[in-house]
UniProtKB/TrEMBL annotation:
InterPro entries: Endo/exonu/phosph_ase_sf, Endo/exonuclease/phosphatase
Taxonomy, superkingdom: Eukaryota
Name assigned to this protein: Endonuclease/exonuclease/phosphatase domain-containing protein
The Endonuclease/exonuclease/phosphatase domain, residue ranges: 5-203
GO molecular function ontology, one term from the record: catalytic activity
A Pfam family reported for this protein in Swiss-Prot or TrEMBL: Exo_endo_phos
Gene3D superfamilies in alphabetical order: Endonuclease/exonuclease/phosphatase
DNA sequence: GCTCTCACATGGTGCGTGCT
DNA sequence: AGCACGCACCATGTGAGAGC
């Protein structure tokens, strides 16, 4: 089972849709989670059709901010449990009959909204009975090694993120290749790279899927 | 003096719309 | 379809202030 997650920073323009289709051809994922779609949910059904995906559930962007979509291939059994502007929560059933929980998460940068988003994850945690995989654009890092260039992130913010992961009993999945998942696309010493996107998983997923690997694509 | 946080200005980027 | 423009969003850079 392959899950592809992409922080697309807007999926409304044709070039980005072309890039998405290319990613699907190269990686052939069973499930795709897109965040920062920056478009209305209705638009996603058109993109789902163009990408030849069987199912689609989208959350509209808040004007030009946020927006998420979960799409899945024919034959993959995905049931949406709940959603908000911060997350899409689903149960995925594998061919062998086993199931796991998959939550796509979009973290906020604004402090008050950030706490709302963490509360949402806490609520999801209370309803999870199976292995739990959370893929998030958390907009947060755990320590200084997860940011290269630019100003240092506040210590309080990094500690808060670590505490939340501890509280939810989620473990960070290190990527097999690469480290940073986001950059500001600037040249030379103005370039800033951060590890804002990551998979975090519950302990039982670690036991059930010991060969689970996370790659940075591109 | 050092570190951290906050507010504001700035620049890069993407979407929506209108025009050709 | 391609282009230009305006608008909106977001991260960065800078300076000021607070706390140690």
């Amino acid at each position: 089972m392959k899950i592809l997650c992409w922080n697309c920073r807007g999926v409304g323009n044709p070039a980005t849709v072309r890039e998405l289709k290319q990613l699907l051809v190269v990686n052939v994922p069973d499930i795709i989670f897109l965040c920062e779609t920056k478009i209305h949910a209705n638009e996603l059904s058109r993109i789902r059709f163009m990408c030849r995906m069987e199912g689609c559930f989208a959350v509209s962007s808040d004007r030009k901010s946020g927006g998420m979509a979960l799409m899945w291939r024919e034959g993959v059994n995905v049931t949406i449990q709940n959603y908000s502007k911060y997350h899409i929560d689903s149960v995925v059933r594998r061919e062998e009959g086993e199931k796991f929980r998959f939550t796509g998460f979009y973290g906020q940068t604004e402090p008050s909204l950030r706490n709302e988003a963490w509360d949402m994850l806490r609520r999801v945690k209370n309803t999870v009975n199976e292995g739990w995989i959370v893929r998030g654009d958390f907009n947060a890092i755990l320590n200084d090694s997860e940011k290269d260039g630019g100003r240092r992130k506040s210590r309080a913010g990094m500690d808060e993120f670590g505490d939340i992961l501890d509280e939810l009993s989620l473990r960070d999945v290190k990527t097999f290749n690469g480290w940073f998942t986001w950059s500001n696309n600037r040249e030379g010493n103005r370039m800033v790279k951060e590890r804002l996107d990551r998979f975090v998983i519950s302990d039982d997923i670690m036991e059930k899927m010991p060969f689970l690997v996370s790659y940075v694509v591109r």
